[in-house]
Amino acid sequence: MTVPSLLSLLLALAVTLWSSPVSASSDYHEQLFLQPLPQSSLLASFNFRGNSSQQSFDNQHFRYVPRALGQILQHAHTKELHLRFTTGRWDADSWGSRPWNGSKEGGTGVELWAWIDAADDEEAFAKWITLTQSLSGLFCASLNFVDSTRTTRPVVSFEPTGHHPDANSLHLLHGTLPGEVVCTENLTPFLKLLPCKGKTGISTLFDGHKLFDAAWQSMSVDVQPICSSDGDCLVQIEQTVDMVLDIERSKRPRDNPIPRPVSNDQLVCDTSKHYNADDTCYPLEKVTDKAWSLNEIFGKTLNGICPLADSSEQSVCLRVPHEKGVFATPGASELKKDDGFTRCFSLPASGPFDLSIPEQQLQTEVPLQEPVLHAERTIVGHGQERGGMRIIFGNPSETNAVDFIYFESLPWFLRPYIHTLQATITGHDGIRREIPASDLVTETFYRPAIDRERGTQLELALSVPAASTVTLTYDFEKAVLRYTEYPPDANRGFNVAPAVIRVLDGANSRPLYIRTTSLLLPLPTPDFSMPYNVIILTSTVIALAFGTVFNILVRRVVSVEEAAALNAQTLKSRLLGKLVALRDRFGKKEMKVE
Amino acid sequence: MAVDRRKVAVFGAAFVLRLLLVCLFPSLPDLLTGRVEVSTPVNSFKRLQEGLFLYIRNVSPYDGGVFHQAPLLLPLFALLPDVKSSPFPTAIFYFFVDLVNAHALISISESGQSVQTRLHSAMRKHIRWDGVSIAAWFLFNPFTIATCLARSTSVFTTTGVLYAVSNAVDGNSINAVLALGFASYLSLYPALLFIPLVLLCYDQQAQSSKAPNTVRFFVQHGAILLASVAGLLGLSYLVTGNFWEFMSATYGFHLLVPDLTPNVGLWWYFFIEMFDSFREFFLGVFWLHLASYVGGFTARLRRQPLFIITSLLGVFAIFKPYPSISDASLYFALLPLYRHLFPLMRYTFFAVSALLYSSLLGPAFYHLWIYAGSGNANFFYAITLVWSLGLSILLADSIFAALRDEWEQANPESQGQEVKQI
User: What is the dihedral of CA B340, B343, B346, B347, to 10 degrees?
Assistant: First the structure.
């Protein structure tokens, strides 16, 4: 790939804006990046970044760093925070490598990791719980369910992105909620953290209906300290929203969203088919790119610029070939970059802004960068008792091996058997070979789960040779839970958090992350309607055994005749005794009457 | 000599049968290892392999939720070659453990302790199986074979218990208590056999020489038991390096029953369905219930200490927190020693039918629940109830027969009469 890619562009943008954080005229930047992707999709990448000096942050002078978040971080002694809300799946086969190299996305659901300043592990965990509880309230997410079973302490998978002078006292904690449904109630507090709060600037485009209708979307919040070489430190907050929208789907009007069939006169038929006739048609895919505009896609108008941001900044960038016709609202200035694909617009100072691209056919296509690693994780096996995990890594490069860290955190009720870890490799020749896992795994960090206390944490440092596919498998057993530990929809299964893959690239200091999809784990379920029945039935069996045994033990063995005699005697004497007692009572009464 | 030849034939046949099963069906051991009826969280070979894997790599196997077996098993199995690449050495090791158990069983049988004790002499001494038949009954019991092929670690507990008993009937009271210490160290519950075992030793000593001071005898042997367990725990500490970690992962796991994986016992489904606020209460009740049999049996069956041990093993097979068919196979191994009681038992047919019914339907119902999805947990639960019921009928019936035997000894003139209990 000789043509610079989307990623390197984003990188360049980030680096240029980053390089002079102190001297910049404004400490707040916002940026919207749009790129049409194959299969009539559109990647929209929003980025909002604000800085505040460490001193004013410590003194609680909040300007771009929102007070609500800043105070939580101070209270929980959190030095660096990364929070992700993600839904959907990034289709790497069609869309290429991920935006921001995957560093701004999370696994399906909610993912949170933070570096917390604390004296020891217990203190760090206590502060972590404070942090998750507070963030739970702030973002209307179930982050308060990140308890000890969902918290891990990765060793090599994450590195702080900020600069920390006293890194020794920092503790990294990581938690995921793979089953969390990210929705509008998380977007609203997210927008409130922005200086312009979605009223002006590019954030006016956010609409929950469109964002959460996307094929893939990821919202992120990162707070980290950035220090220059002379010791001045800034606290930087960066919020991003990335989404892949289906153009066709997004253009449907909100009040009438049901797709209609294309009318006959607009159908393009494949006339080469022998059955092609007036009433029979094999529809052809459109060769032209779809027409779209910002207003149509987002259902909202981009309304002015955020006054806090640098007004001269070109905050909307579009990555289409230069020869493509793009119409912008008058008043916006367009700048085409040298790479032949990127053009940026600076917004008019006031009034709405719109971009529209008519339907057109072009020969040139924007090249997509191929991902450095394909990863896929599935649960294999059948039955609710045990299963196996299979992870497939594919290295598409013909020349270079790829080194990476594979990190997964498993819930405690999934019990992996690490001694069954096996590896197979498929090389150039396409032949599967079993090899010892230790040939590929250079390092293992493993912390087994403890029931109801903590989950499994597994980090593997792996290397996949060029042009080969590696499959790792291991067995696991599914635990049976207490009936109160099952969720109301117990038979749906339990979510297993996605695995995180950190690709180690010596040349590129920026981290590259890939996340697999989350998994659904069906567990054996008891009968939830049975607690009383089970208690009664089991107790009956126990009582029967106990009763019979002790009945036999405490009674005397006698022959049948003896028993009959004894019984008869007791019965007779008992009756006689009763009669005597009755007679006495009557006798006494009569005495009294007299 | 003829008897010896029979013994060799039985042992050889048992060995060859196991070897054939392993050779003809190489996947059978792993299949059996995965069966919940055979492998429980405290004796599963797969969990032992995981613990061993971590132990060899210097990770504490007890800092996790998988391994709950005694620490000394780790260095023992570390000596054996890797199971995945060469399964035969481990399998043959287990075959020999079974043969060793059978050998102990023969010596128990040959002592005649089951028919003739110091205080009691059975009326039907002539109805008896000899040692080799009992060993054959043990070695060819499908439950024993399944346990052996599944490489369940409860066979070591079986060894401990059987050797404790065989030493006790031979009069080696110190060895007996040491063996019991080993069994208790492995799986905790054999400690409850202490009182009947010491009674057995006491009777043997009183028979051969002068009766020792009862209290002193008990205290002495209690001290030996404690010392042996303490010694094993000390060795375990050397192996693991963290005393409380392995104590809570092994004995704490036995006592508190946190893992509710299905098994043939009564605890798992009860504690799955138990209300959280009553969990601790019923845990206490279940353990008390289990321990209560010791006192009852000891008081009433004092004249037949070996029968107390046998019946207690039956109780454990039913009411242990993590029972498996290996516990039942141990009970079934000792029960034929009381062949002379069989004519006195009343519900044999019913008990045997219930046991056969549940052992055939159990796997089927488990399959329906876990794999086919056409049944639910109640199917397997119902079968465990029937299994426990069958075992408890057998247990109660054998106790009744033993008491009747005692009664006939006291009243020889009324032998064979109908009896009643009042």
Answer: 80
DSSP-derived 3-state class of residue A377: strand
Say which residue the tokens 């010892």 belong to: A436
Contact between chains at A531 and B46 (C-beta distance less than 8 A): no
H helix or E strand, kind and range, residue A177: strand A170-177
Q: Which residues neighbour A51 within 8 Å (Cβ) at sequence distance 6 or greater? A: A21, A24, A27, A28, A64, A226, A234, A235, A236, A237
Q: Could you give the C-alpha distances from A215 to A240, A371, B260, B309, in angstroms and in order?
A: 17, 19, 40, 68
A352-381 mean pLDDT: 88
Q: Are A445 and A462 in contact (CB under 8 A)?
A: no
CA distances (Å), B109 to each of A183, B12, B123, B164, B175, in order?
A: 73, 20, 17, 14, 18
Supply the DSSP string of A380-436, one letter for each residue: E--SSSEEEEEEEEE---SS--EEEEEEEEE-TTEEEEEEEEEEEEE-TT--EEEE-
> How many angstroms separate the CA atoms of A160 and A164, rounded?
8
Q: Which tens digits make up the pLDDT trace of A299-355?
A: 888 888 888 887 777 789 999 888 888 888 888 888 888 888 899 998 887 788 899
DSSP A334: E
* Cβ burial, residue B126 (10 Å; 0-12/13-18/19+): exposed
Cβ-nearest to B421 among A531, A535, A557: A557
Q: Give CA–CA dist B304/B117, Å, rounded.
A: 6
Residue B47, min C-alpha distance to chain A (Å): 8
Distances (CA, A) of A192 to A59, A68, B269: 22, 10, 49
CB contact under 8 A, A559 and B418: yes
Q: Which domains does chain A have, with CATH numbers?
A: 26-250+261-298 (no CATH), 374-521 (2.60.40.740)
For residue B10, CA distances in Å to B14, B15, B108 come to 6, 9, 17
Residues in A touching B63 (Cβ below 8 Å): 447-448, 450
- To the nearest whole number, what is the mean pLDDT of chain A? 87
Closest Cα of chain B to A500: distance in Å?
22
Angstrom distance (rounded) from CA B330 to CA B327: 5
How does strand A28-37 pair with strand A316-319? parallel
Rounded to whole angstroms, the Cα distance separating A164 from A224 reads 9
Inter-chain CB pairs, A–B, below 8 Å:
168
| Nearest CA-CA partner of B160 in B72, B90, B259, B53 | B72
Q: Which of B53, B64, B407 lies nearest to residue A449, judging by beta carbons?
A: B64
Check the CA dihedral B291-B295-B301-B306 and report its sign.
positive
**Global pTM value:** 0.88
Beta bridge partners of B321: none
User: Strand pairing partners for A161?
Assistant: none
Instruction: For residue A552, give the chain B residue with the closest CA.
Output: B400
The reply to whether ipTM tops 0.90 is yes
Nearest CA in chain A to B53: A419
The region of weakest confidence among A556-565, B28-37, B268-277 is: A556-565
Closest chain A CA to residue B392 = A545
The Cα of B82 is separated from the nearest Cα of chain A by a number of Å equal to 11
Task: Classify residue B411 by burial, with Cβ atoms within 10 Å: 0-12, 13-18, 19+.
Answer: middle
